[in-house]
Amino acid sequence: MQHQAPHKVIYDTDPGVDDAMALYYALAHPAIDVVGITTTFGNVYVEQAAENALYLTALSGHDVPVTQGVAKPWVKHAEAPPDSIHGADGLGNLLSRQDHTKTLDPRASAQFIVDMARAHPGEITLVAVGPLGNLATALKLEPALPKLVREVILMGGTVLEPGNVSPVAEANIWNDPHAADLVFTAGWRLTMVGLDVTHQVILPVKLFERVAQHHKHPATDTLLHAVKFYANFYSGLYPHVAEIHGCFGHDVLAFVALTHPELFTLETGRIRVATEGLAQGQTIMRRRNIHYPHDGWGADVPLCQACIHVDAKAARQLVEDTLMRPWL
Ligand code: BDR
Ligand code: CA
Q1: Which of 1-5, 236-240, 250-254: highest mean pLDDT?
Q2: Distance of CA 85 from the midpoint of ligand 1 (Å)
Q3: Which residues are tagged catalytic?
Q4: Could you give all domains of the chain from N- to C-terminal order, each with its CATH number?
Q5: pLDDT in tens, 24-59
């Protein structure tokens, strides 16, 4: 069912090529009002993530507040960003950047989330597509946050699909498993958009070529450059992606789940995150409602939803149709 007023979204992100793709989907979609962008370390260091968010919004002519957030994981040691996936600059090693004058909102990302949730109780949707330290910090600042926000949709984790940084772990959750476990057990309405569905949707480079050709705008040219770099990485890793010469859309699927939930099959259960050892970063979903004798899986662990299947063809078409809209 179509939401009447646009969803007020705070976009928590580590841009990142698919983060940039998702941002532009959100800015282009009439059912989404991006009221703020909060940034985190992940695909790049947090300073670069914040700069990329400023740059991408300035380039596309959208005036959205941007804040800088957590620079490292809650407990574990930080790892170097994955230059080979997103480029050292997070946007596929852009050859040059246009000047812009946009500056950061001085608040820390977690404080911004809390301020906005208090100012608009029950209205804010958090779409989180990076490691979850900003959300975890916001929960510490305001324990009533789960009641103040409308819902959380996050790209991260996996239920049945193998991991992408270990056999069981997805990158965003791996990057800060302690924060992620707090977020999954906080008691808000939470939908996990994990590798189970993002690995079903391969977006061809040609889609972004058509979008760039249509708009002839620096924003979509920049996205095309970044996607080409990202697609080369994925095509080198997975033969079935190379056949299409494309990439996984990961983060954009979180927004697709917001605007078009009917494209997804969901499963409800309790989700916990392994924080240590060989399974570190694994999202474990309790999928059977039987009694388990061990701690950590009781009725006090809140229920979440995980996306298990997506109509990939419809999702791909939606991404293209949305980016083709007159949003620049
Ligand atoms: C996730 O990790 C990051 O590399 C992507 O931006 C996405 O959020 C996919 O595992
Ligand atoms: Ca991301």
Answers
A1: 250-254
A2: 10
A3: 14, 250
A4: 7-323 (3.90.245.10)
A5: 999 999 999 999 999 999 999 999 999 999 999 999
